[in-house]
Amino acid sequence: MVSATTQSTPKPIDVWLIDDNDAYTMVVSEALNMAGTVRCCGTWTRCEPALEALDHGTPPPQVLLLDIGLPGMGGLSAIELFKQKSPSMQVIMLTVFDMDDKVVTALRKGASGYLLKSSGMSDIVRAVESSVQGGLPLDPMVTRNLLQAVQPPRKRSAKDYGLTDRELQILRFLVEGYSFQDIANRMFISISTVNWHVQNINEKLNVHSRSLAVTKALKEGLI
C-alpha cells in the first residue's frame, strides 16, 4: 500500500483591528484577508467592547492592530489591559502619530511594534508576520526620529553591560525590526540560539522584554 503524504498549509495569523475610522478599517481588513498569511477576524471602533469580548470568552487574536487616538479609552492606556488578558498577544500600534514620547511609552507598556497609518498595506502585513516571529516592527520614519531625539545624559557602552559582540549585533537587528527567523538566517544560527542570546541581552540590560531592550539601547546610545 502506498501512503500519500500531504503538506499542511500554515494557519493564517488571527488579527484584530481597533480603529474608529470606518474607511481605513475596511481597507486594512480587506488587505489582511487578501494576503493569505493573515486574516482579520475582528474589527472594533473602541477598546472597551473588545476587552469585554475577551472577558466573555472570545478567543484572543495573535496580533492586535491598535490605534492610539480612540474615543473613550485611548490605545496607549489599553495596551497593558490587553496584555494582561492575553500575554502572548502581539500589540502593534497603528497611528498617525510619530511623536517620540508616544513611541517610547507604547514600547514600555508592551507594544510589539509601531507603524504609521501612511504605511503601505504590504508593510502592515509584513509587520504582523514579523511580530509573531519575534520581530519588533517600527516604521522607518519612527526609528529615524527616535534615534535623532534620543539624547542620553551619559552615553553608555555595550561593555558597561557586558554585552558580547554577537549580542550587540543581535541587538542592532532587533532595533532594525528583524524577526528572530530573519536574524537566524542572517547570522547562520538557529532560532533557539537567537532566543537564548536575546534572553541574555535582557538579563544584562535588566529588562524583561525585547521592546524594553530596544528602548534602553536607543536611550543610552548602545548602538
Short description:
With 223 residues, the protein is of the alpha/beta class.
Commentary on this structure:
With 223 residues, the protein is of the alpha/beta class. The chain folds into 2 domains: 13-147, Response regulator (Rossmann fold, 3-Layer(aba) Sandwich), CATH 3.40.50; 151-219, Orthogonal Bundle (Arc Repressor Mutant, subunit A). Helices cover 49% and strands 12% of the residues. The protein has 10 helices and 5 strands, in the order E-H-E-H-E-H-E-H-E-H-H-H-H-H-H. It has helices at residues 22-35, 47-55, 75-85, 100-108, 121-132, 140-149, 165-175, 180-187, 191-205, 210-219; strands at 13-18, 38-44, 63-66, 90-95, 113-116. The chain has a 5-stranded parallel sheet with strand order 2-1-3-4-5, with helices on both faces. Helix 1 links the parallel strand 1 (13-18) and strand 2. The protein is globular, with a radius of gyration of 18 Å.
